[in-house]
């Protein structure tokens, strides 16, 4: 995988901008990131973030992004802190009030459209209502209750839930592209 913390931070920053520049509850932020990947896959066959997704007790989560929010990685080496402040009082928000959409150079126009769609559908939803919505198998059939632990949500399972044609082959393509990006970055 070729996880890009700068791109993940820009995704959350975009949602914070849509939230009037106000910080988002961590649970809501991670749900929106997950739903944005899902929306992007439904539209193009590719997620916005290249990372593992897991089922947790509060629903589906992009694993590495959640770890960054929780301070498990150094945000200064990755570009994360260029866009987001450290988590405080269960919230994550913009690192600077002067950030604009023009600063979000990792996100393509198609990805911004997916983010807009997710915000239109879920931006006004309360954190816990959104959490509950992601627990409903009619809405997110790929999420499985892991109890007090977590379990991976295979990309194929998400793609099958979204009725992506040839989901297994598409998931392989996504992984191959991620591997190619990783190789290019290491050169």
Automatic annotation (TrEMBL):
What single Pfam family name could you report for this chain, choosing any that match? SocA_Panacea
Could you name the domain of life of the organism this protein comes from?
Bacteria
InterPro entries (UniProt xref): SocA_Panacea
The residues covered by the Antitoxin SocA-like Panacea domain are 31-137
Q: What is this protein called?
A: Putative phage-associated protein
Q: Which organism is it from?
A: Sulfitobacter noctilucicola
